[in-house]
Amino acid sequence: MKVLGIETSCDETAVAIYDSEKGLLSNVVSSQIEIHSEWGGVFPELAAREHTKNILPVLDKAIKDADISLSDIDAIAFTAAPGLIVSLVIGVVGAKALAFSIDKPLVPVHHIEAHIFSNFLEEKIDFPFLALVVSGGHTELYIINNFEDYKYLGGTIDDAVGEAYDKVARMLNLGYPGGPIIDKLSEKGICSLELPRPLLKGKPQHKYNFSFSGLKTAVLKEVEKQKYKPEDIAKSFQEAVVEVLVKKTLNAAAEFNIKNIVVAGGVSANKRLREKLTEEAKKEGIKVYFPPLYLCTDNAAMVAYTGYLRAKKGKFVSYDFKPYARIRM
Ligand code: KG4
Ligand code: ZN
């Protein structure tokens, strides 16, 4: 089965084609980073306008790279939720138009689900596993019992972790997106600032919840003092974030006796998180899976693959399907 996937939930216009026999046939991503860097974050209307401009050339390239014709496609998968609604609709309308023109079924995919299952493109992972989702819009922990059998354990009660990275980078005038810049800069720094580890201890109802807004404010106060070097601020911030993510994830793995952890979303590219979680989990006999770097941030390969899993079950939707800005997986 060949499934074409479309992703436009934020600021990447992406199309990919997954073949259940041959694997990934093409994976095209057109990024808008340069356009949004001026604003220090994604500007929704600009993103939508860019998606409109890019979607057909990206689609064209994905078909050419895969060296197939449109009629070879068996199903069209698309990111249905969550995301910027003005961005999502471009992908949804594009998917519907394509499905109509080649008379093939439509498969909706949840963006977070796609990030999680992107790990399966290169690894065979046994169920159940714990999923730590860390991106620009999400910080969540789930138990994944099987495809479409998910248990939500907790998530951020304010900022997402990637969002906190982007905001701290903005405070330090480092550019956008902040995650990779802070990750790199912190290699040169020392962990000299005392920063909070939010929700690590405290109320049981927040056992698996996260909070990064207070940490961000604590960093801002330090930036304003002009006492520390940017690399030391970056390092101290990153250590605080990584400690919280690692401890909460391992606590959940211990409580539910789960031996596999899957990390997903843009922040899964973070070097320190990769290093520390792998190291700490190993001590507990737990294996951690991270997506390869080209699948960490938004892409359509993850949508095409997850779409394939759903198409295999025959779960299609009709042309009146509506996208959602916010909806849980
Ligand atoms: O998954 P993604 O591409 O988009 C969303 O669905 O949100 O994630 C983007 C986020 C941005 O906030 C970016 O700063 C962060 O992922 N990110 C990183 C790293 N690479 C990307 N954060 C920390 N360290 C990185 N190496
Ligand atoms: Zn994403």
Automatic annotation (TrEMBL):
GO terms for biological process: tRNA threonylcarbamoyladenosine modification. Its main location: cytoplasm. Keywords: Acyltransferase, Cytoplasm, Iron, Metal-binding, Transferase, tRNA processing. One of its GO terms (cellular component) is cytoplasm. It catalyses: L-threonylcarbamoyladenylate + adenosine(37) in tRNA = N(6)-L-threonylcarbamoyladenosine(37) in tRNA + AMP + H(+). Required for the formation of a threonylcarbamoyl group on adenosine at position 37 (t(6)A37) in tRNAs that read codons beginning with adenine. Is involved in the transfer of the threonylcarbamoyl moiety of threonylcarbamoyl-AMP (TC-AMP) to the N6 group of A37, together with TsaE and TsaB. TsaD likely plays a direct catalytic role in this reaction. Belongs to the KAE1 / TsaD family. This is tRNA N6-adenosine threonylcarbamoyltransferase. It comes from Hydrogenothermus marinus.
